[in-house]
Known about the structure:
single chain, alpha/beta, seven-stranded mixed sheet, 7 strands, 34% helix
Amino acid sequence: xxxxxxxxxxxxxxxxxxxxxxxxxxxxxxxxxxxxxxxxxxxxxxxxxxxxxxxxxxxxxxxxxxxxxxxxxxxxxxxxxxxxxxxxxxxxxxxxxxxxxxxxxxxxxxxxxxxxxxxxxxxxxxxxxxxxxxxxxxxxxxxxxxxxxxxxxxxxxxxxxxxxxxxxxxxxxxxxxxxxxxxxxxxxxxxxxxxx
Length: 196
Ligand code: GDP
């Protein structure tokens, strides 16, 4: 899909603040700094649609984006930021959990992981939730421009092994910097929606 007119809709923390819309949603989840804002911008073909929270690692809201009136992108708060208190972590976990559990429009989850690192405990928890939910999903390995092509293949295999996704069919290496893998990821999203 070539995006023509992506728009920020709203930031929300509680379900009563989520936008009223029938559009189906693709939620982006991952550790803070995994590259969520960059990926949303790359998919939308914009430089500054999604703002990086990584400077403070403090993006605790859910941001909703209207993608040409066809899909809503949902940027979930990044988890696992080290320098916040236990209470804050619990609160962010609640914001994410609540969205995942109450939102009927949620159709697909894209779980991002830095290709260079093994999944964290939080990543594994998120992955297990996604599998159990029966939703469409994709695991996106980010920042692949920092690795050689051989290394990328090795990381896809290793992360696939850790997750039990050995056939690799759900793992997509991308680089938001050089846009590698972005058209392929759009194809995966489009295909998931066509099957609906
Ligand atoms: P978020 O916290 O998950 O939203 O992550 P950001 O999108 O803000 O990215 C975190 C950091 O990683 C920033 O410094 C980005 O410039 C960098 N980054 C994100 N995606 C890529 C990528 O594909 N390649 C490279 N080299 N850096 C990236």
